[in-house]
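explain this:

___
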Amino acid sequence: MPSPKASLRALFAALLASCTLAATGADYPDRPITIVVPQPPGGAADAVARPFGQLLSQRLGQAVVIDNRPGANGNIAAAYVARSQPADGYTIFFGSVSTLAVNPHLYKSTGFDPLKDFQPLTLTNQTPNVLIVGAQTPYRSVAEVIAAARARPGELNFGSAGNGNTMHLTGVQFEARTGTRLTHVPYKGGPAALNDVIAGQIPMMFHNLSAVLAFQKAGKVRILAVADTKRSPLVPDVPTMAEAGAPGVVQIAWSGMLVRSGTPQPVVDRLVREMKAILQSPEFRKPQEEQGSEILVSTPAEFAARLKADYTTMGKVIEAGKVSID
């Protein structure tokens, strides 16, 4: 029988080997991975996360589970990943500009710090917000909307998915840049607001291009301008806000994959490498682009820089517009 000292040395060596293996990420992944999505199943985020997760599963050789955790504009899901899950790469957060760059300026406590608690991996997709009006409205240009808003200050309503989201903030920017005063009508989600635009209950809203493209093609809404610095190839005849008479109104809704800060670098490197391959593959890109998303591929540093820049910009927009959560 080995002596007690020999047994302890063997145990110590085994523990050391195990720690070294974990630190290098050599055995990653050896169990299922979870992608936490801060929206309910069936939404726009889900439409990206699920096919992405399927392809990531194929590349990593492990199951990838989608965990939908809606609530508090994404704060519940973000706090769950940032504070309740280990920094080991087995829990990935599908974050967005709303949750990471907007919410910290609206809530007294989100339960997480977007700049400290997360390690960005890569941006995945983006879509610009657009100004849409119902097909039954008389408005056929941004100039006509501005003229109507100036003629009747505060009487022209616009809908959004709720106070403080990027749809609402695009409206705030629009008011500031055009010298108009609109009335914001918050809904419990973008689909409900869009339905009322289509039904004629409200005349207009600012929404993601990917969410309204099919309705524009069906003649149910008109897209008057794109809140981007360039025109969208999906609607090349639609001007940018600047071209349409509202310079400075730029609001692009982006999403990306992140893990907890402190995740071992080899694990981060592996995830970035596999995710980059997915985002560059026609199998993933083509259906997403057909739905109105622009697919992005970035380095962790590029993602971190964009998050920090938008965090600062959104803070200024919210402060200037005196936006608050009910």
